[in-house]
Amino acid sequence: MNKWLDEVAWNAEGLVPAIAQDATTGEVLTLAWMNREALTRTLEIGHAVYWSRSRRELWHKGATSGHFQRVLEIRMDCDADAILLRVESVGGIACHTGRRRCFYRRLEGEPGHQRWIATELVIEVPRRR
Amino acid sequence: MNKWLDEVAWNAEGLVPAIAQDATTGEVLTLAWMNREALTRTLEIGHAVYWSRSRRELWHKGATSGHFQRVLEIRMDCDADAILLRVESVGGIACHTGRRRCFYRRLEGEPGHQRWIATELVIEVPRRR
After folding, report:
1. Contacts of A108 by beta carbon, 8 Å cutoff, 6+ apart
2. Interface touch B75/A30, C-beta < 8 Å
3. How does DSSP classify residue B9?
4. What is the pLDDT of residue A128?
5. Per CB distance under 8 Å, which residues of B are interface residues toward A?
6. Chain A residues within an 8 Å CB radius of B99
7. Cα(A90)–Cα(A106) distance, rounded to whole angstroms?
8. What angle do CA B67, B128, B58 make, to 5 degrees?
9. CA dist A40 to A9, A10, A16, A58, B106, Å?
10. Confidence of residue B96 (pLDDT cuts 50, 70, 90)
11. Is residue B79 a contact partner of residue B59, using CB atoms and an 8 Å limit?
């Protein structure tokens, strides 16, 4: 019974964007992509599994770094074309740069002089991606 | 000076996904899409402006419903291919279905019997999209 999977509005590449939100702090940690297999695996193992568009393979987040995302809840939006995961961010580092979250840059500055400024420190220097 | 705009990794269609998060409650409200013009307009007017992929036009969210998203902060992720907005959700309704947020469905049920269940009530019956 995979009716729930068929209800997702997969895009032309068979993917859907998936947001991971820290269940404790509410921080938006990451936006990544899933295909049917990634979402199925996520549900099966209780960890976020994505589809790496660059490597073109399933990506069990944390498999090399130890920074898994334990999935507590899976949500879908009104158009069925976006997924929201409430997760426990194991180790408190969700970004491959070693920061708490991927959204570490904020647009700052006067009109005409905006810049992206890093607002979060690297907690742990990553060994590899 | 639009260097900050050039730093966004626009996809092949010139778009980037943009998450809107309620600045007060931390709830993830919507995932929509922006092109360069939408992001520029968002910055200029301080309200979220998206690109409607279905209507193929700029979409000033709330222009018909009154449920604007006042933008307090614009963030970008590590790969520069996703935007995060911290917003004030005017009227407390972000979804065109009249709910607080678009992510109103949760996956529930035993393995093999999962279903998407609506967990949020319609606050205001929408007149039109």
Report:
1. A114, A115, A116, A117
2. no
3. -
4. 57
5. 1, 3-4, 7, 17, 19, 21, 25-28, 30-31, 43, 73-79, 82, 84, 95-97, 99, 102-107, 111-116
6. 78
7. 24
8. 65
9. 15, 14, 13, 11, 15
10. very high
11. no
Closest CA to B103 of B36, B16, B26: B26
Q: Give the closest residue to A84 by CA, choosing from A21, A34, A127.
A: A21
pLDDT digits (tens, 9 = 90+) for A62-89: 999 999 999 999 999 999 999 999 999 9
Contacts of B1 in chain A (CB under 8 A): 112-114
Contacts of B13 (CB under 8 A, 6+ apart): none
3-state secondary structure of B92: helix
Per-residue pLDDT of A99-129, as tens digits, reads 999 999 999 999 889 999 999 999 998 875 4
Q: What is the pLDDT of residue A1?
A: 63
pLDDT at B67: 95
Contacts of B105 in chain A (CB under 8 A): 75-77
- Partner-chain residue, chosen from A1, A30, A113, that has the shortest CB–CB distance to B1: A113
Q: How far apart are CA B88 and CA B91, in angstroms?
A: 9
Residue A122 burial by CB count (10 A; 0-12/13-18/19+): exposed, middle or buried? Answer: middle
Q: Which two tokens stand for residue A7?
A: 């209800």
H/E run at residue A40? helix A36-45
Q: In terms of Cα–Cα distance, which of A1, A72, A36 is closest to B113?
A: A1
Predicted ipTM?
Answer: 0.96
